[in-house]
Amino acid sequence: MAQAGSGQLDPLSAVGRPGEPGAACTPSRALAELHAGNHRFVTGTPRHPNQDADHRAAVADGQHPFAVIVGCSDSRLAAEIIFDRGLGDLFVVRTAGHTVGPEVLGSVEYAVTVLGTPLVVVLGHDSCGAVQAAKAAAGTGSEPAGNLRAVVDAVVPSLHRAAERGVQGIDEIVDIHIACTVEAMLDRSPVLAAEVEAGRCAVVGMSYRLSAGGVRTVAAVPAAMAADATPAPAAA
Ligand SMILES: [Zn+2]
């Protein structure tokens, strides 16, 4: 039996038993759990759920993560920490600047179609080095060395979108890049788009603040998911 740090049964552990379909978790429920965990992290009251030996053994035979996190690789953006979750909860794919190539999309499609994960989150953050590098490269006309160029090239369309809107601040550009990444994933993955169209999955873009530790929704498909869920109240 998985116990949360507070001694209360973790609700997602209760529905996501190993070896059983994770259909009990909806996109809205998954989003609310992420916001609740982030609220605990921000306020310094983390429960560190699902990180104990019992839970480790319980999920060894199967996984039903309730959210996919496509995040920037930045060392300060560790998904399980900032959302206060544990083993088996989050399916995490990270690249610099949350750029999405075929391997990333294939990983997301695996989680959504095979594992039944109902929510995909694109997680960016303020002062993102990948976005800054792309902006610097565009400004000087220089090309980054090696494979870093692939990262910069993947951010360039977001810079164009920002320029069209007259946006110049790096953090506002980051928000646009997060929204563009949500769009790009759905454009390039008909599999993911079909899951969203069928109502089995949602894609939400979030921006994280490095200092404060909070997340803010900047894009969502379907759009109704854009309204930030209020943190789940403490269990009675
Ligand atoms: Zn970054």
Molecular structure report:
With 236 residues, the chain is α/β, with parallel strands linked by helices. A five-stranded mixed beta sheet has the order 2-1-3-4-5. The relative contact order is 0.15. Helix 6 crosses helix 7, helix 7 crosses helix 8 and helix 8 crosses helix 9. The longest helix is centred in the C-terminal third of the chain and has 19 residues. The chain contains nine helices and five strands, in the order αααβαβαβααααββ. The site of zinc ion has 7 residues, from helix 6.
Draw up the topology in text:
Elements (H helix, E strand, L loop, with lengths): L10 H5 L11 H16 L10 H6 L8 E6 L6 H4 L7 E6 L6 H13 L4 E7 L3 H12 L7 H17 L5 H19 L1 H8 L4 E7 L6 E7 L15
Parallel strand pairs: 1-2, 1-3, 3-4
Antiparallel strand pairs: 4-5
Bound molecules: zinc ion.
Zinc ion binds next to helix 6.
- The number of strands is 5
User: Can you list the strand order of the major beta sheet?
Assistant: 2-1-3-4-5
Low-confidence stretches: 1-11, 13-22, 232-236
Bound molecules: zinc ion
- The average pLDDT value, as a whole number, equals 89
Query: What general form does the structure show?
Result: globular
Q: What's the order of the H and E elements? A: HHHEHEHEHHHHEE
Q: Could you state the oligomeric state of the chains shown?
A: single chain
